[in-house]
Amino acid sequence: MYVHNTLGRRLEPFSPARPPFVSMYTCGPTPYDYTHIGHARTFASFDAIKRYLNLRGYSVYHVQNITDIDDKIINRARDEGRGWQEVVEEYSKDYLEMLSSLSIRIDVHPKVTDHIQEIIEFVKGLIEKGHAYVAESGSVYFDVDSFPDYGRLSGALNKEAWRQEEHVKEKKNPYDFALWKAAKPGEPSWDSPWGKGRPGWHIECSVMSSKYLGSSIDIHGGGIDLVFPHHENERAQSEALFGKRPWVRYWMHVSYLTISGEKMSKSLGNIVPFREAAKKWGPKVIRLWLLSSHYRSSLDYSEGGLEQASRLYQRLREVAQRLQKRISALEPSHYLREREARVLEELKRIHGSWHESMSSDFNFGAAMSSVWELTNLYYKELESSESQAVLLYAYRMLEEFNKVYAVLDDIMAGEGSSRLEAELIDLLVQVRAELRARKMYDLSDTIRQRLQERGIRILDYKDRTEWVRE
Fold this sequence. Notes:
CATH superfamily of the largest domain: HUPs
Shape: elongated
Low-confidence stretches: none
Strand content: 5-15%
Radius of gyration: 27 Å
CATH class of the largest domain: Alpha Beta
Structural class: alpha/beta
CATH topology of the largest domain: Rossmann fold
Strand order of the largest sheet: 4-3-9-10
């Protein structure tokens, strides 16, 4: 397996520190507004990466933070005339609902305000090692000049490019960044050795990642917009305190989600809230679409792209259900004819191609092409095959694909229909066929319509009728 490391901008063999254990930290939301599909792309991408690593035999422990105190939260609360905790609660709920609908599971979801003491201890350690200083106001800043390797992650090696926060006279250098912010009137604050205040933005992730994953991490990721200054600052303060290089073995970043070629942003007014998109397309379709291109390539939001993902979603569900029924109805294979052996070899080629794509820096786009190939092969060759062995292999491929895409869980788990329910639907289909044979089309159409209303689609062929759950 090869992974693109932002630090160095090159593909590197994947080699975690303590295989098969893999530690992963990804930057989560600042809950001051509803989550949008740009957020969803980042979170779904890292979930798929984690799932593929699990498929390859690794055990991934995934931590993703919630920044529940920040200038944006404070400003939103002030603008709306309510408490900052209320703002956090409302938008955190929206974020967690999005994760659930996309089948994303995080092992630990730490919040900044639950780790204030650990943050204070981290800052104290940086001061003691000469990497941070206390200003007259009680704010604490990281001394960027004390870390000679600063700028290498982002490629911003010119000090003039390091300006990232409002310049105040109390800072030694305009590019030094805040670790602890002195309290301002009317803002939430906590006691510290330097007076009342609250954490700076960057310090939180260094603290929470090290608390739950230790002083070195295999994978640290987020959106590409976090490379500078957030991840650059995280790297500087963490390596300065721990004395370990690299602190992170693989830095990974998901590219932008765009609309008509423009970056999605509030300033442009082109934000698409996730809950609105999910209402129109369904979360499973959105998840497939989010994983339809390489995570390091930009993905443009379009009706055409989502319609294509919707078609693939329906095809996958249909193929999975039809394979289940065909396999259960066939006897074990004792011999493969030449045609069946040829189809089996084609399945193996597609299977290998999918793994090759996923093993090469998790190339979702190329891997999705293999998924389309499998569904096309089903309708071209497998639909008429009577070989249980060939159909079983195709179904096992779908099971593997679903371990990453997570859109067929109800079918794979058998939750879509119990044995009794399936038998009753089969009976209704048989009754409908008899009604059609007697030319009682009104009644047969009523059965089709009632089943359709309950998510059961009837498929009529020249020599048979089948049904699938939508």
